[in-house]
Amino acid sequence: MNGQFSTLLTTRLAELTGGLRFEHKPSGVARAPQIVETMLPPKGHDHQEGQEFPLVRWALHGGGFDFMRPAPFGIILHGGIYTSGDIVAGTRDITTLALALGRIVNDRAFPPYRLVTPVPFTIGSPEQGSEGLQPHPYYWLTMKLQFIVPSGHGG
Description:
two-stranded antiparallel sheet; alpha+beta; elongated; 20% helix; 2 helices; 7-stranded mixed β-sheet; STM4215-like
């Protein structure tokens, strides 16, 4: 993985979610999810509850090293939204975000890497032991992306 890959993935995620609008709690305005590479910044003294939502955060999750060519690696992706609506509205909205992000499989090329399909996802809290549970009014999804270098490519 390199800077070119990071830019390409961030751009692709923004394209997939750019037309979506979810509630931003502090302002009450609907907006597209922010795309966050690696981690959210630390909460400052003026932090408002829910200000980071809606979001799509991705980070390198694992990989390997190969002497001859770029090695495969994994990305973990978390999506999160806030809703002032009921549980049905929150479930509908997080499902909408999951479906939009799932369209990443329509173009698997991230040269020199290729996205492996199928792409597994889980809707619910990313906390160990709480998978599938939604901490209303916040809703989460997790996707695990795996990338390989197809045969005939690389060093």
